[in-house]
UniProtKB/TrEMBL annotation:
Pfam family for this entry, one: PMEI
Naturally occurring in which organism (per UniProt): Eruca vesicaria subsp. sativa
Name of the protein described by the UniProt record: Pectinesterase inhibitor domain-containing protein
Cleavable signal peptide: 1-29
Keywords: Signal
Keyword Plastid: no
SUPFAM superfamilies: Plant invertase/pectin methylesterase inhibitor
Residue intervals of the Pectinesterase inhibitor domain: 26-158
Residue ranges that the Swiss-Prot or TrEMBL entry lists as coiled coil: none
SMART domains linked to this entry: PMEI
């Protein structure tokens, strides 16, 4: 008896699948900002304008560079005797280096290296935040590092939206 209903079940499944896929395509077709898809859209929106993922990623990296320099300066003021701030200061400097490399990779359109350097910067920020969490400290350096980590995470996501453009070699 159950075998008699199989064609109806298959047909229903196919129809529901088509309806679901069509509905998803309609949702994706609507223009939505790039930031709505990031983990922290409230940090992304002020930095990203338009719908070009390459420009958005560059904007995020530039903002990260500026904010990281400020955080390094702030951490340098408080490194005296505080092991966590000292660790964070070193990791922020590492993040700054990785952001420069990420920006250079973006310019050269080397998307894989871009993502690697952004991942390293986000990891540097994470190490900084974890140093404070483990010691149960909360201060301006930790708060800045946490915001940088979240913004870096957004930038890493946006970098995955960049399409690879491969140049074709001309034949003789």
């Amino acid at each position: 008896m159950a075998g008699c209903n199989k064609p109806k079940l298959y047909l229903t499944t196919i129809v529901l699948t088509v309806v679901f896929l069509t509905a998803n395509q309609a949702v994706e077709a609507r223009p939505r900002g790039l930031c709505t898809r990031t983990a922290y859209p409230e940090l992304c929106r002020p930095l990203v304008k338009g719908s070009n993922p390459r420009r958005a990623t560059r904007s995020i990296i530039c903002a990260l560079e500026t904010k990281t320099k400020r955080a390094i300066a702030d951490a340098a003021k408080h490194t005296n005797g505080n092991k966590q701030v000292t660790i964070c200061h070193e990791k922020l400097r590492d993040a700054s280096f990785n952001l420069r490399k990420a920006k250079n990779s973006l310019k050269k359109r080397h998307n894989k290296m871009l993502r690697i350097f952004l991942t390293m910067a986000v990891s540097d920020y994470g190490v900084c935040v974890n140093a404070f969490v483990d010691s149960h400290q909360v201060n301006s350096v930790q708060n800045a590092a946490d915001e940088l980590r979240k913004t870096g995470t957004n930038g890493l996501f946006l970098s995955t939206l960049i399409k690879s453009i491969r140049k074709k070699k001309r034949g003789n």
